Amino acid sequence: MSFSHTITGFSLVMILLFKFQSVHSQLQVGYYSNTCNLAEIVVKDEVMKAFYADTGVAAGLLRMHFHDCFVRGCDASILIDSNATNTAEKDSPPNNPSLRGFEVINNAKARLEALCKGVVSCADIVAFAARDSIQFSGGLGYDVPAGRRDGKVSLASEAVINLPGPSSNLNQLTQIFASKGFTQQEMVTLSGAHTIGRSHCTSFSSRLYNFNGITGQDPSLDSMYAARLKQQCPQGNRNPSLVVPMNPFSPTVADNSYYSDVLARRGLFSSDQALLSDATTASLVNQFAKAPSLWTRMFADAMVKMGQIEVLTGNSGEIRANCSVINT
Q1: Which three-class secondary structure state does DSSP give residue 245?
Q2: Pairwise CA distance, residues 204 & 197, whole Å
Q3: Which residue stretches of 27-182 are H helix?
Q4: Annotated catalytic sites, by residue?
Q5: pTM of the model
Q6: Fewer CB in 10 Å around end: N or C, the chain?
Q7: pLDDT, block means (10 residues), the chain with 328 residues
């Protein structure tokens, strides 16, 4: 690598670090303590009600936060409805029909508007709900710095560009996460979010049938697990609602079993199994598989950092009255 390239790479890291530190100073833990002190309690209550009705909603809310933050930053653009002139993020292929939990955010927002009109942003509600979802699923709770404001733009095309796909290889994953200010270690840590939730068969069926146009099945997939998946996702089935658990043995518990599954070649997506394609990332997978407390702690830290990607603060953006529609 040339000296000029080294300086360019160093400068990019420093710029991302400066932006993260600057944002960190603007967001605050307990941000609503004086203006709407029940904000986090109300959100947690709505998440709790939804979770006990359907434990799977926790994964939906966690994924919603991730998909929001990776596109235009954590600005609740994921919540905006499409209209006659624009297809919004929520209706892009990475999000529709798989993303869920919107009603939880809307219910929390309605209650908070009744309590503290025009105070609590939709972006903060999404961040609080993701944290609560992790906690209700058995993961480690953490303080969420707040003070985000809501964006006014939501484009389906940007979701396609900014979100890693289920077939992403390690280089692609590393580059996408690096573009958001994350190290490769943090990328592996956040991949553990796949410990809960479900996936549509269409997201991974290429690993089961006619893989790469040559072999019938992805050779990196455990054969017994593949046979089980084929029973759940028959070849040629076009049912868009057919889903399987991301984690075959504890799909509703936020634990480190995801990493044990990857080691056993039971990573559902190619992007999961790709973590073993490099010695450095494979070593991290091994560490997290053996040390649950290490992963839960690092995951909580990475979630706090993710919640601060390119946030709008101060006079930027707005506080939406209805999370699905920008203010008029």
Answers
A1: strand
A2: 15
A3: 39-53, 57-69, 102-115, 122-136, 156-162, 170-179
A4: 67
A5: 0.91
A6: C
A7: 42 49 73 98 98 97 98 98 98 94 98 98 98 97 98 98 96 98 98 96 91 81 96 87 91 96 97 97 98 98 98 97 96
